[in-house]
Amino acid sequence: MIIIVPFLNVRGMALYPFILIKHPADRRNPVLLNHELIHHRQQLELLILPFYAWYLLEYALKRIRYRDHYTAYRNIRFEREAFHQEADLDYLRRRKIWAFLGFARSTRIK
Predict the structure, then answer these.
(1) How far is CA 28 from CA 24, 78, 82, 92, 106, in A?
(2) Strand ranges (DSSP E) for 1-110?
(3) pLDDT per residue over 40-74, tens digit each?
(4) Hey, is 3 helix, strand or coil?
(5) Which of 6, 80, 92, 104 is the most buried (most CB within 10 A)?
(6) What SS3 class is residue 70?
(7) Residue 86 DSSP label
(8) What pTM was computed for the model?
(9) What confidence tier does 110 reach under pLDDT thresholds 50, 70, 90?
(10) Dmax of the chain from CA atoms?
(11) What distance in Å separates the CA atoms of residue 69 and residue 41, rounded to the nearest whole number?
(12) Are the beta carbons of 26 and 80 closer than 8 angstroms?
């Protein structure tokens, strides 16, 4: 279910089972929606709440390491997978379980 949240600080966010988006036009943005659906799959694999705990812990550690919000965010393994695969609209059909583990290596993506 897609919910428009005009005051959202980001363009989109996956909070299972919802996808929050800032701009109504993004309802028709297949790349953004695919990015958020990849996060839904990650959330389901980790039984939702552990996903958020892992995500926040990894962000905090990378925030300390890089001393920059955006660099830390882009290097979270869940984001690395979603950004890397977002344009491949067939990715979720082929995706193996726990595929995000293959995106753990931090290479300081900006």
Answers:
(1) 8, 23, 18, 18, 32
(2) 2-4, 12-15, 18-21
(3) 999 999 999 999 999 999 999 999 999 999 999 99
(4) strand
(5) 80
(6) helix
(7) T
(8) 0.94
(9) low
(10) 36
(11) 24
(12) no
